[in-house]
Amino acid sequence: QVQVVESGGGLVQTGDSLRLSCSASGRTFSRYAVGWFRQAPGKEREFVAAITWSGGASTYVDSLKGRFTISRDNAKNTVYLQMDSLKPEDTAVYYCAARCGSYSYLQYDYAYWGQGTQVTVSS
Questions:
Q1: CB-CB contact of 91 with 120 (8 Å)
Q2: How far apart are CA 62 and CA 73, in angstroms?
Q3: Ordered strands of the 68-73 beta sheet
Q4: Cα-flanking dihedrals φ and ψ of residue 104, to 5°?
Q5: Beta bridge partner(s), residue 121
Q6: Which in 2, 30, 61, 109 has the greatest CB count within 10 A?
Q7: What DSSP element (H or E) covers 88?
Q8: Which helix (H) or strand (E) segment is 119 a member of?
Q9: Which residues of 13-38 are buried (b: 16+ CB within 10 A; e: fewer)?
């Protein structure tokens, strides 16, 4: 079993960058694919990005390609989401989730979820 905790959120201005971290417990974390999702006020939770257990492959929602970058450091049991050129529409609670197996853009494929970290981008 894996437990994940997000950190790194905050209040920033348009154009700023933030790096979110997803820290995991469990010595087998390196076997888990990880996804990032977000939920804006009044909207459904949506897929952002995901990465394989090895970090060798990743996928993004088309609208965020080029601005967001997912990576991982298995030695530190941590997955990162680098967010650049932030916009007010990026304001949301960001969640990381883990699953044993290949990555997925589907929420119900992930068994382990964090509590989320708030990102607010002011205009």
A1: yes
A2: 24
A3: 3-7, 18-25, 78-83, 68-73
A4: -150, 155
A5: 12
A6: 2
A7: none
A8: strand 117-122
A9: eeeeebebbbbbeeeebeebbbbbbb
Residue type, 47: F
Angstrom CA distances, 35 to 12, 110, 123, stand at 23, 8, 27
- For tokens 């790194």, the residue is 8
Q: At 92, list the tokens.
A: 């949301």
Tens digit of each residue's pLDDT (9 = 90 or more) over 65-103: 999 999 999 999 999 999 999 999 999 999 999 999 899
3-7/18-25 β-pairing: antiparallel
Q: In the 3-class helix/strand/coil scheme, how is 51-85 assigned residue by residue? A: ECCCCCCEEECHHHECCEEEEEEHHHCEEEEEECC
Q: Residue 27: what pLDDT?
A: 67
- Residue 27 DSSP code: T
